[in-house]
Amino acid sequence: MNTRRRKTVKLNATITRLKREMQEIREDQNRIREGRRPVKEKFDDVLSECDETELITRQSICTRLRLTLMFQILKARQNNDFAKAAQLTTSLRELIAQQENESLQQSDGPKSK
Fold first, then answer.
1. In the chain, where the domains are located
2. DSSP secondary structure letters along 56-112
3. Cα–Cα nearest to 39, from 47, 50, 29, 51
């Protein structure tokens, strides 16, 4: 009987220790979850800023292309090279139409998903 009682006491002590360790692990996991939440929010903010920066960069490139074509049109007209001015004007119209189509596709894209 005495050995049986010792085994029971030892088993109860082991169960109590395991419960305590499990509680500590649970608390650690909760702290990790709480720590990950702000990191994820910050990461999402950075991704959003990257998207905005990419959009601004793309718009800047488009604006630069348009201005370059407009300047070349003015130079061609100034030099009385109306054929070149007409060709550049057509190129500018095509570029503007292409950019507008891309803009429409991008704005329609997320809605269709």
1. 2-108
2. HHHHHHHHHHHHHHHHHHHHHHHTT-HHHHHHHHHHHHHHHHHHHHHHHHHHHHHHH
3. 47
Distance of CA 34 to the CA centre of its chain: 22
- Per the CB < 8 A criterion, the answer to whether 54 and 80 are in contact is no
Q: How confident is the model at residue 1 (pLDDT cuts 50, 70, 90)?
A: low
Alpha-carbon distances of 7 from 1, 19, 21, 50, 110, rounded to whole Å: 10, 18, 21, 63, 65
Residues 6 or more apart whose CB falls under 8 angstroms from that of 76 comprise: 82, 84, 85, 88
- Percent of the chain at pLDDT exceeding 70: 95
Closest CA to 92 of 58, 112, 113, 68: 68
What is the pTM assigned to this prediction?
0.57
pLDDT of 111 strictly over 80: no
CA 84 to chain CA centroid, nearest Å: 42
